[in-house]
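Customer escalation, tier 2.

The customer says the design service returned an amino acid string that "doesn't look like it belongs to this structure." They asked us to rerun it and document both sides in this ticket. The original structure tokens are below, unchanged.
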């Protein structure tokens, strides 16, 4: 698992952290109390993790390391979150799409293909004759070249 920044583009990271923490809270009553802290949020937790990852200088982490940072964020009463960082996160988990999301993705792909085909049809066609004539003109020597 890697890191994300200002959640504008990558929500899979935050969602994965949220799911892990919710599952842990269901199984661990002591952690559930800390997880319910109204002064903390999963978004701040993700920002904290991203800043810690950045400080480390490493690009890849085991899931357990990232989840450990998430738990640490909630277990510490006072913790420096840091500023949001605009970066891309790679989450190595399979994201399950709903049927509606799959259908929307299909429709988006069809629309992109249609747009690409329309752009090709609008593009002016260059004839081979024009290119061939230019080549033959360049190859023929002039009378002044002798």
């Amino acid at each position: 698992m890697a890191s994300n920044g200002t959640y504008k583009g990558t929500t899979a990271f935050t969602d994965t952290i949220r799911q892990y923490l919710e599952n842990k809270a269901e199984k661990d009553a002591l952690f559930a109390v800390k997880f319910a802290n109204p002064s903390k949020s999963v978004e701040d937790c993700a920002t904290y993790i991203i800043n810690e990852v950045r400080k480390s200088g490493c690009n890849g982490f085991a899931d357990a390391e990232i989840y450990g940072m998430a738990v640490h964020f909630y277990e510490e009463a006072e913790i420096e979150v840091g500023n949001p960082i605009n970066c891309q996160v790679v989450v190595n988990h399979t994201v399950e799409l709903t049927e509606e999301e799959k259908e929307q993705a299909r429709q988006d792909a069809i629309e992109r293909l249609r747009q690409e085909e329309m752009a090709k049809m609008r593009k002016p066609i260059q004839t081979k004759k024009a290119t061939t004539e230019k080549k033959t003109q360049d190859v023929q020597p002039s009378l002044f070249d002798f």
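Tier 2 assessment: The sequence is consistent with the input. Residues 1-9 have pLDDT under 50 and may be disordered. Residues 99-122 form the longest helix (24 residues). Sent an explanation to the customer and offered a walkthrough call.
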